[in-house]
Model the fold of this input.
Amino acid sequence: MEVVRSKLVSADLMPAADSAQSGWERLARYLNGFGMSLDLSQPIRRFAGGLANRNYLVVLDGQPTVLRRPPDGELPPGAHDMEREHRILSRLSNALPFVPRGLHYCDDRSVIGVPFQLIEYRPGLVIRGTDLSQLEGREGAPDALSEMLVATLAALHGVDAREAGLEDLGRPEGFIGRAIAGWSRRGVLVADGAALQALLQDNSRWLLRQTFRVRPPTLLHCDFKLDNLILEPRTLAPVALVDWDMGTRGDPLFDLATLLSYWAEPNDPPALHRLQQMPTVNSGFWRRARVAERYAALTGTDLDDLLAMRVLALFKLGIVFLQLHRQWLNGAVKDDRYADFAALGEDILLIARDVSNGSEG
Done:
């Protein structure tokens, strides 16, 4: 068990007091029924990072394994789909080396109170937010990370969904139209006040007036960003792409636009800096235009409607932060980081409107 212990110590884990989860004994009995042994003599600890789903490091059959579950409380429609994620991971791992294997899915809420899944654990480096301290002294790391992000996204979009056994994942026909309508509906549910509702309508109506290209669908991650990648510490190559609960098939430019919605630049509006989702304001990181150009060179994808797609990605992102704030208001989450998310969500929606009228890059 020494190998297991060393991996547990090196993982990015929260203090034991912050890792509480009831039902571990029930979980052990449940897994035993499937011939799996959960080692309760090892501490079960929650991974740090993330704003919604909870990930725990457990020892299963002598190996470190990730238990992943949704947050408590009422969840937004279509969000935190453990079954969808397990289906993707259990198949896509055969096609891409940087996708961890899905090991088991359980929809029986009597076990730990929510659906959950078990996923192969892959240790490595995770760069969270804007903190580059782990790469101090490594000249060229921002450039390497920029290239790695674009190349990894291109590799995902190059997978043949049929060969991966995911040819019936999602409904790619009409994907963009449903995304606009779906996020508009979700926004109405969490937008408080007439001014915010009007801002949502402005963005939604603008998006509905746009002409989006029809492209062959690809597999989509739908939340592709740096902290959803676990990296090999020396080479910065991707070891695991995680957080697949929104994965589907659709227009590949939507994934690129999602990445760009997190890709803050030094001269961006303050709200994009407050996001603190990626360290791209630091010297050496590419600018968004170069990211898009490199993606087009690697995939051959035209970028005619990238501006409209970026507005859609920002529209979605603003609403996601409104949803997260609502979960905090409802008491489903206790993390005080959520307290300012309503203001941040509204500011991102304002940026989406500025991008649509050409007054922001």
DSSP finds twelve helices and nine strands in the chain. Residues 1-11 have pLDDT under 50 and may be disordered.
